[in-house]
Structure formats: structure tokens, C-alpha cells
Amino acid sequence: MKRVLVTGGAGFVGSHLCDRLIKNGVDVLCVDNFFTGNKANIAHLLGNPLFELKRHDVTFPLYVEVDKIYNLACPASPVHYQHDPVQTTKTSVHGAINMLGLAKRVKACILQASTSEVYGDPEVHPQPEDYSGRVNPIGIRSCYDEGKRLAETLMMDYHRQNQVDTRIARIFNTYGPRMLEDDGRVVSNFVVQALRGEPLTLYGEGSQTRSFCYVDDLVEGLIRLMNADDLHQPVNLGNPGEFTIKQLAEEVRRICGSDSELTYLPLPEDDPRQRKPDITTAQSVLGWIPKVPLAEGLERTVQYFRERVQNSS
Ligand code: NAD
Ligand code: UDP
Ligand code: UDP
Predict the structure, then answer these.
(1) Which pick of 69, 197, 211, 248 has the fewest CB atoms within 10 Å?
(2) Pocket of ligand 2 (CB under 6 A)
(3) Nearest to 91 by CA among 16, 37, 151
(4) Residue range 99-138, pLDDT digits in tens
């Protein structure tokens, strides 16, 4: 039976990926240091004979026998990745080296979770994979952006130099159940604020745009990419539906039935002004296209947070 390693498997995306793999009958080894991961995300899998959990930090070597590796370990919210930026860079860079060394030794196929942040504050819109981006190397977001860029470099070099079978997913803003209440990212912030009747915190004027992908769609894309033949170039995975942050706030208020005010806070340094994936590659090569529209994905996310916010109040 094939064994699949998911690093960051107790996190938001990782736990949904573990669920889907196990549903498909795959033997899953979940590795996580629980920095932003949560045991509650995988508690339901603990008794399953297909599931194994190992507490481990990917910046240290890992000797296991697996056939496939999804390398998702890395905090993804600006609040969390900026908390200890040196550790963030180590996680992306040392983590990628260790997982690539492992993939090389056991001849496993490895997929790196990269990000739309490799495009920085883009002057090409929407962003195709051949746009090389506009990233500030010395700003407060650089530990994440440059760490992921270097992880991509390592993937390409291990492929060229050591013939490791690599995949790179450039993931655009993804949301859904199991984001942390205090995650800091915009969807969970707005939903929790709206449910608590607190003001929704818009950074800047709320005119910056993002394109939001529901987590089930992303997981489908990650699995298709892993299973594609000979696809070593990066592939964008995201929902091309583009919204301003103010539109998102209004949609969240509507779905929550909330009359929370909107409050405006300073725009963080280097916050990208616009972002929208060009998914031509994913569509043509993987036959993948996101299916869940924002309103529907938000409904499901609000339902999840409604139970949590009620339980904690
Ligand atoms: P998350 O913070 O919920 O999950 C990250 C997981 O990695 C957590 O469980 C955390 O404990 C674990 N982790 C962090 N550092 C680690 C280390 N050194 N060793 C072992 N485990 C470690 O974030 P997420 O949204 O689930 O993101 C998953 C991956 O997808 C990340 O690599 C992220 O950069 C990437 N990504 C996510 C998005 C998104 O919108 N969700 C967008 C682009 C890229
Ligand atoms: N590594 C690992 N697990 C393995 C094999 C390697 O964690 O099963 C790590 C190890 O720490 C090593 C890194 O991956 O430093 C890179 O491995 P590679 O073989 O590329 O380089 P080297 O061993 O020569 O440093
Ligand atoms: N944002 C916001 N209010 C919040 C959290 C985020 O207006 O409470 C903005 C943030 O400035 C950014 C966008 O929403 O422009 C998306 O932020 P997030 O941290 O979710 O993702 P990223 O900036 O990494 O795309």
C-alpha cells in the first residue's frame, strides 16, 4: 500500500488533505510541530488504522519510508509567520531541503505548497505562472515570500540535479472550516467579528483585492497535481473570482445576518493591492476548476464558526 506523508497535516489545509486521502483509502503519515496546527483538526482521525501522527519540526531531518510527500508545513497567516520570521524562513528552506533529501533517498514524489505571495505586489494582472513577481526582499512579509521562492528554487534544482520527482503548487488565498478563530487572515477575522457583533477590521480602504478559493476545491487541485505525470513547473491553484476586501466584508455581514460596523485600520507594509490567479495551466493540464462560489463557501465557513463562537461564549 502507498504511504503518503503530509507535513503540516494538523493545519487548516493539511487536515482537509489528510481527510480526503484517508477517504480514498490511502495510508497517511501526518507530521506537524503544532505551531499553528490544532489537534482538534485531526482528532477524528486518530483511531483510524490508515492514520498516523508524528510530532516533528521539519527543520530537523526526518527518516521515514514513504511514497509521496505533500510538504505543507509553514505558518500561512501574516500574524503567525511574522511572529518568528527567522523560524518561518527556516521552516520553508531547511524544511524543503530535508523533505527533498528524504524524497531523494526514498524516491518519493514531492509536492511543495508554494503561494501566490511569490508574485509579491504584482504589476501583471491576473498572475500567470511565467510572471516572476515583484517581491520586496527585506520587508516584513519577506520571510514568507522569499522562503517560499527559495523552496521553489530547491524543488527545481533537486529535480534537475538529482532527478527528484517534484511538483509545485502556487496556492492563492484559501478559506474554510478549521481556520483558527485567531488565525488573523481576513476570512476568519471577518466571520468571527460578524458573529460576535464586533466591528469588521478593514485594513487600508478595503479596496485591495483577493481571490478566495474554498478548501475542498484546493485539496482536489493538490491531489490532481500530485498525480499528474512529469509536471515540474509551478501550477497556480486558486479561484479566479476577484473581490475587494470591502465586498468580502459586506458578503460576510449578509451571510451572518450581522449589523457589525466596518472599521478602518492602517494597511500593513507591502500588502499586495490586487491578486487573481490565471488558472489556464491547471484547467488545461489537470482538468481542474474550482466549483464552490464564494457565497456558498462562506455559508459553510460561517456554519463552522457559528458553532465554535457559540461554544466559547
Ligand atoms: P496553517 O498555518 O493552518 O497550517 C500550517 C501547518 O504547518 C500547521 O499545522 C503548523 O503547525 C505546521 N508547521 C508550521 N511550521 C512547522 C514546522 N517547522 N514543522 C512542522 N510543522 C510545521 O496554514 P494553511 O493555510 O493550512 O497552509 C498550509 C500550506 O499551504 C502552507 O505551506 C502555506 O504556506 C500554504 N498556503 C496556504 C494558503 C492559504 O490561503 N491557506 C495560501 C498559499 C499557500
Ligand atoms: N534528509 C532527511 N531524511 C532523509 C534523507 C535526508 O531528513 O531520509 C535530510 C538530511 O538532513 C540532509 C537533507 O535532507 O541534510 C538533504 O539531503 P541531501 O541528500 O540532498 O544532502 P546531504 O545529505 O548530502 O546533505
Ligand atoms: N485584511 C483586512 N482585515 C483583516 C485581515 C486582513 O482588511 O482583519 C486584509 C489584508 O490587509 C489583505 C487581505 O485582507 O489585504 C488578505 O489578508 P490575509 O492576511 O487573509 O491574506 P494575504 O494578505 O496573505 O493575502
Answers:
(1) 197
(2) 61-63, 97-98, 101-102, 104-105
(3) 151
(4) 999 999 999 999 999 999 999 999 999 999 999 999 999 9
